[in-house]
Amino acid sequence: MSVIALTPDDFARLAAAYHATRKLSRSTGIEAIGGTAEDRALGFSAIWDAVRPRTLLDPFRGLVLARLLRRSADLAGDVIECGAARGGGAALLALAARSAGIGRRVFVADRFDGLPEPDRRYDRSYRAGQFASSRAEVGDFLAGLGLAESCPILDGDFAATLPRLPPAQRFALVHLDGDLYASTATALAALYPRVVPGGAVVFDDFYDGSGGVLAAAAEFLERSGELLFLGPTGQCRLVKGCRASEPQRRDRLLAETAALGELPAYRAFLASCLPLAEGEHRAAVAYLAALAGAE
Ligand SMILES: C[S@@+](CC[C@H](N)C(=O)[O-])C[C@H]1O[C@@H](n2cnc3c(N)ncnc32)[C@H](O)[C@@H]1O
Questions:
Q1: What domain range includes position 41?
Q2: If exposure means fewest CB atoms within 10 Å of the residue's CB, which of 8, 141, 144, 236 is most exposed?
Q3: Which of 110, 125, 162 most suits a substitution to test ligand 1, by most atoms within 8 Å of the C-beta?
Q4: What pTM was estimated for this model as a whole?
């Protein structure tokens, strides 16, 4: 990672923040989330109940995705989840679209036999076959929610399925949840040209300590010059057309959160998730301190 050049300290700080928020997210009940009127109008709580047993996402990340989906209402294009596993994340996106009255397909891309072989030059954790699921079960789950028509399944490796999308296919929102360097880089290369201006690409597990997603995103940003918005959840995103001005380059990763108002937004997000238990609150404070230290 050259231009963005996260130092080991930077990486450790981001990873610590990630784990703090992950702990917070896992143990925070959904009844405490969905605090804004818009979230309630979207019916997020019911959506989360429907998908929770079949997703590895936590409710914070789910809510971030639902909000991004809603914000994309004026854009053309569909949605795609690359790395669907048991289908819960894709269903969440499709239910959020339906609930918001946004007519949009959600493509479900996965090989269903789990992760391919990690590339140990980039991926410090994960193993081949992890998160194996079943295409048939995912199909049944989506059909049970009335989503069979709106959720086409792309069964196979991203390298095989994504380049075969019709040339006119465009996306307003891309969720990359393939965990590994090569999977993320492959999906990004295939899909970014199809993202409409203003559309978001969300990277899950950006600072998960494994490093592959971060490396793939950083390489891409170095080439494209686009900004990376660090969210409060371990997700991050780029918005197509939103570029960095020099000399922001290294600081891009570290300062965006505060500079673009994500930190206050996170405080509000946390506030909407209250009451937090004492331990969770400490984790939140540690997370905010880590972010502040990264400024
Ligand atoms: C962490 S899971 C996805 C979790 C899911 N988004 C959810 O809501 O629970 C990662 C998934 O990515 C898939 N995957 C990773 N690399 C892939 C590739 N190159 N092609 C197809 N699928 C891939 C794996 O099969 C696995 O199901």
A1: 8-294
A2: 8
A3: 110
A4: 0.82
